[in-house]
Design a protein that fits this description.
By secondary structure, the chain is an alpha+beta fold. Helix content is about 35%, strand content about 20%. It has a 4-stranded antiparallel beta sheet. Helix 1 runs antiparallel to helix 3. The longest helix is centred in the N-terminal third of the chain and has 26 residues.
Length: about 200
Amino acid sequence: MQCKYHPQRQAVHSCNSCGAPLCPECTEEVKAKEYYCFQCAMFQTVSGAGTTLKDKKTQLDEKKEKKRKKWGAFQYFLMISSSIVVVMGAVILFGSQSAPPGSAGILQNDRAFLFLVDSALKRYAHYKDNNYPDQLNVLVPSFLPLKKSDLIFLERLSYQKDPQEGYFLSLSNVKPGEMKIILSTKGIKYQPAANPGQGA
């Protein structure tokens, strides 16, 4: 059997989620003897990272209230950064695949969806000579595995193509008190969300 992504190579594993035949280069071992293609491995990791982020925030709220008051934004930054590192390392998409089972949860998780779209932008640029799309819907379905009925989820994101930074990507609506995450080719920036009654 030949690898789905490299037809000239012999497949050595099959993806535990979608069943695609995979060569060693296309195989991700998420757990011992559990093999996935890059896209399915990314969905597994992003889903887990979203849950871990909520758990960590709950624990910090309950156990470290005094420290949180002292550290403020810095502690919040550390918590988010650790989750971002996990997500960014796993977010690799191969286009033209339908979303694996369980991907609906990612569409409901704003931050996981933000990083999913960010990875699609990077993959788009890789194949398009470092150019970025004018609109996010151009990514679908080749670089972002969404159905037409799911395109409405892109409206939750704010996207702007930029000649210097490549692009700016963030959530359109951030709750007061939360940090606004702005992604670009230069990395991640954090901005406090505007409180009600203040300007954006």
